[in-house]
Amino acid sequence: MDFYVGARMLRTLRMVINTLLLAQPVAIHTDRLAHYQSLVPAQVHQKYPHGTNHVERLNLTLRTHLKRLGRRTICFSKRTDVLVSCLAIYFWS
């Protein structure tokens, strides 16, 4: 499992999409963000306005497990390296 921390900018999305394309997927479901059209090959790209519900549900589960990801909690950390370390411990333990 791999993860990237960052905004939905072209550089971050490129890292995610390149990792996905190494697995030779049959389909990649995205929302209609314009950056995806230049990154994902048309034969595997499927756009849905609400096609990311499953992923968002997984994100919600992750946020409930890791309160550090919730901005209004006392254990919220602004440092990216601390966040990446906590996610690595969570995913790989």
Can you describe what's shown?
The chain is mainly alpha-helical and 93 residues long. It has one domain. Helices cover 47% and strands 6% of the residues. It is built from four helices and two strands, in the order H-E-H-E-H-H. It has helices at 10-22, 35-39, 53-65, 80-92, and strands spanning 28-30, 45-47. A two-stranded parallel sheet has the order 1-2. Strand 1, helix 2 and strand 2 (45-47) form a beta-alpha-beta unit. The radius of gyration is 15 Å and the shape is elongated. The mean pLDDT is 83.
| Class derived from helix and strand content | mainly alpha
Query: Oligomer, anyone?
Result: single chain
Please give the order of strands in the largest beta sheet: 1-2
Question: Termini distance?
Answer: 12 Å
Mean pLDDT: 83
Biggest beta-sheet profile: 2 strands, parallel
Specify Rg, calculated over alpha carbons.
Answer: 15 Å
SSE string: HEHEHH
Number of helices: 4
- How many strand units? 2
Low-confidence regions = none
Percent of residues in β-strands: 5-15%
Overall shape: it is elongated
Number of domains: 1
User: Approximately how much helix is present in the residues?
Assistant: 40-55%
Question: What keyword list fits this structure?
Answer:
elongated; 2 strands
List the helices and strands and how they pair.
Layout: H1 10-22, E1 28-30, H2 35-39, E2 45-47, H3 53-65, H4 80-92
Parallel strand pairs: 1-2
How would you summarize this macromolecular structure in one to three sentences?
Helix content is 47%, strand content 6%. The chain is mainly α and 93 residues long.
